[in-house]
């Protein structure tokens, strides 16, 4: 069978599974719609959390980033896994004990304030909508690349599928589809990695292969360092991202942001107990680590394969453009790979020197997708990778859409505007908000805003600087009051947005920086995407200062905090 | 008062776990990476290994260790879920 038929077949089968689950896991109550009834097994929830968490960015972009940033790419590996340690110890068990359906609902109860709830909803919606735009784009691109249909057709197919199971089943439908999506995703990610690791090092386990020797007896990483430095690139295993300070703060921002993202926190509302929430965080991390420890191997091996395919030790024997392999031609068609014969010798020269480098464009996102082709793997492997990429984008989109929909129907409608609606009415409204959220996400998928590229990073910065600190203080400080929490959230998010917009323009419109020209990354050399941790510090500081000058927390709220700190119900 | 001591036990466990969390990622993976890179673990430089592999494995162990230890502390103070 040819590649396209195989891809249609695999993607078709996975979609049939998702629709089947939609019919089987319909939600009959608000509890099922928001938290899947609260009885999901910790291991199952861990798997669903992993799929919820790992987006098109983790699946497609991360290994590409590491391939080009080398050691500097470690911030993503540590940042996006270390956040689960914080989640498991500082948030998940206590929030589960409280037993709310949404994150703003907890903030509203703990800070005895509807204003705090509305501020939390705004933070949540900004963070989640910016995040979901990237997923919709990923769905459209994956469809058009692999199935050779229009971007628009692809996007609509994706929206219809998500609508099917998310509107009918809410969290219940989403949970079971995410479990299926995780399985597809991890198979799609590891099979090519195992093949390539075995081909290069004889060791089929990619995590070990990266540290093993190649056929000529040299270690793979030493070989990689040698190849890239000879061609004028920075040494792979030591190239830092700007500075150690920047890497430190960037990693911290990603960790805090991960722990503060509402669509991830919500998943821990679906397990049956505090004990289950603690364990489930561990299982989530196991399933995430499977992919995240494979990614550096994929990255290093893909980089080595790419360089050694093109450049030879003797530059006169470099790959001739006329002899370029078919994957090279395919990716050239997409515009993500570009060659320019600067010295007119017909040979390709890929170097770190801008003047002589002839590979004028190598888009980082193609590394994972092109990897199986570069290594010459069979068509069915490439077809599985396509289905895996779609599963990654769909599962994350669904989780984000639920976070948005439930904050509208449960927090704004039921919590603030119409407290008296019945459960049946609320369930209807929650389905309507889900449809609304899908339409909004779809609209941005069709008309991606200019700032789409910067948005996922922004979502982390916002979650880190607004939601994480108030949630943590709500549990660990009995004295934190509503004035402190509201001031903290607003100042944390404010400072972060200011820093990002000053560097990248207001709403990412170039040259609208309001404070005039400044050195890039002027604050301690920290890049804008890494600023969430500083925003979080500001949030904590402002909250404690404001608290010390305002009214005390009511006694019943102190009781509530004491209660969420212990697993047993009182 | 039991709840107070229970909470103190939890906090000191969290501090212990987060100290390890901080050491393997921020110290081994970033601050002291050059020094550790002089040591090899097979083909890996040790600092690089912590940044791209070792820290993640440690995180997994930490979360399970925390869950298990908290289970014991819950029982010890009689606050486990019935």
Q: Mind sketching the topology for me?
A:
The complex is a heterodimer of chains A (570) and B (82).
Chain A: H1 3-24, H2 30-35, H3 42-53, H4 56-69, H5 74-98, H6 103-110, H7 114-147, H8 151-201, H9 206-209, H10 220-230, H11 244-260, H12 262-265, H13 274-310, H14 326-334, E1 337-338, E2 361-362, H15 366-374, H16 379-417, H17 423-446, H18 452-476, H19 482-504, H20 532-548, H21 555-565
Antiparallel strand pairs in A: 1-2
Helix pairs in contact in A: 1-8, 1-16, 3-8, 3-13, 4-13, 4-15, 4-16, 5-11, 5-13, 6-7, 7-8, 7-16, 7-17, 7-18, 7-19, 8-13, 8-16, 8-17, 10-13, 11-18, 11-20, 13-15, 16-17, 18-19, 18-20, 19-20
Chain B: H1 2-31, H2 33-36, E1 40-41, E2 44-45, H3 46-76
Antiparallel strand pairs in B: 1-2
The CATH topology of chain A is given as Sodium/glucose cotransporter
Please name the fourth-level CATH homologous superfamily of chain A.
Answer: Sodium/glucose cotransporter
Give the number of domains of chain B.
1
Report the portion of residues of chain B in β strands. under 5%
Sheet with the most strands: spatial strand order of chain B: 1-2
End-to-end distance of chain B, in Å? 21 Å
CATH architecture of chain A: Up-down Bundle
The assigned structural class of chain A equals: mainly alpha
* Total helical elements of chain B: 3
Largest interface: A-B, 48 and 44 residues
Range of helix content of chain A: over 70%
* Amino-to-carboxy terminus distance of chain A: 63 Å
Number of helices of chain A: 21
The number of distinct structural domains of chain A comes to 1
Q: Please identify the structural class of chain B as seen in this structure.
A: mainly alpha
* Unreliable runs of chain A: none
């Amino acid at each position: 069978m040819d590649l396209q038929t195989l891809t249609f077949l695999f993607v078709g089968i996975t979609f049939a599974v998702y629709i089947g689950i939609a019919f089987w896991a319909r939600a009959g109550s608000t509890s099922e719609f928001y938290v899947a009834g609260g009885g999901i097994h910790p291991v199952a929830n861990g798997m669903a959390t992993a799929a919820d968490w790992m987006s098109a960015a983790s699946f497609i972009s991360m290994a590409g980033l590491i391939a080009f940033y080398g050691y500097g790419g470690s911030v993503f590996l540590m940042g996006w896994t270390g956040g689960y340690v914080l989640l498991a110890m500082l948030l998940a068990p206590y929030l589960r004990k409280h037993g709310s359906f949404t994150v703003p609902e907890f903030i509203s109860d703990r800070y005895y304030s509807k204003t705090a709830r509305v501020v939390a909803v705004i933070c949540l919606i900004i963070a989640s909508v910016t995040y979901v735009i990237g997923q919709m784009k990923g769905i459209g691109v994956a469809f058009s690349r692999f199935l050779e249909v229009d971007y628009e057709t692809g996007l609509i197919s994706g929206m219809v599928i998500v609508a099917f199971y998310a509107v009918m089943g809410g969290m219940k439908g989403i949970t079971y589809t995410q479990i299926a999506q995780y399985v597809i995703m991890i198979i799609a990610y590891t099979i090519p990695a195992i093949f390539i690791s075995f081909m290069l090092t004889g060791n089929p386990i990619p995590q070990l292969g990266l540290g093993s020797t190649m056929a000529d007896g040299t270690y793979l990483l030493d070989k990689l360092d040698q190849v890239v430095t000879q061609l004028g690139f920075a040494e792979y295993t030591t190239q830092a991202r700007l500075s150690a300070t920047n890497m430190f703060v960037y990693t911290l921002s990603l960790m805090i942001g991960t722990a503060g993202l509402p669509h991830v926190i919500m998943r821990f509302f679906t397990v049956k107990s505090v004990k289950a929430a603690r364990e489930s965080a561990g299982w989530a991390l196991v399933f995430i680590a499977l992919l995240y420890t494979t990614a550096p191997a994929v990255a290093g091996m893909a980089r080595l394969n790419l360089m050694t395919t093109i450049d030879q030790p003797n530059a006169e024997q470099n790959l001739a453009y006329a002899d370029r392999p078919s994957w090279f031609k395919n990716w050239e068609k997409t515009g993500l790979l570009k060659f320019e014969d600067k010295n007119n010798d017909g040979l390709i020269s890929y170097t770190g020197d801008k003047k002589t480098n002839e590979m004028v464009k190598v888009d980082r996102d193609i590394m994972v997708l092109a990897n199986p082709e570069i290594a010459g793997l069979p068509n069915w492997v490439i077809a599985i990778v396509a289905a895996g990429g779609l599963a990654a984008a769909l599962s994350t989109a669904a989780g984000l859409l639920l976070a948005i929909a439930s904050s509208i129907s449960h927090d704004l409608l039921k919590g603030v505007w119409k407290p008296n609606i019945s459960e049946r009415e609320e369930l209807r409204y929650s389905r309507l908000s889900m449809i609304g959220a899908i339409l909004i996400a779809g609209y941005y998928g069709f008309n991606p805003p200019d700032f789409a590229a910067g948005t996922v990073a922004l979502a982390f910065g916002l979650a880190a600087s607004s939601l994480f600190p108030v949630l943590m203080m709500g549990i660990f400080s009995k004295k934190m009051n509503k004035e402190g929490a509201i001031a903290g959230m607003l100042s944390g998010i404010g400072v972060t947005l200011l820093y990002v917009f000053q560097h990248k323009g207001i709403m990412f419109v170039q040259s609208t920086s309001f404070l005039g020209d400044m050195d890039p990354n002027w604050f301690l050399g920290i890049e804008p995407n890494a600023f969430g941790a500083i925003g979080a510090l500001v949030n904590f500081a402002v909250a404690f200062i404001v608290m010390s000058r305002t009214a005390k927390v009511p006694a019943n709220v102190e009781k509530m905090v004491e209660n969420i700190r212990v697993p047993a119900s009182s | 008062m039991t709840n107070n001591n229970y909470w103190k036990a939890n906090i000191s466990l969290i501090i212990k776990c987060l100290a390890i969390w901080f050491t393997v990622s921020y110290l081994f993976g970033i601050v002291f990476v050059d020094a550790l890179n002089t040591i090899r673990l097979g083909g890996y430089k040790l600092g690089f290994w912590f940044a791209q592999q070792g820290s993640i494995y440690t995180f997994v162990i930490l979360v399970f260790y925390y869950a298990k230890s908290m289970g014991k502390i819950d029982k010890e103070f009689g606050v486990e879920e019935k």
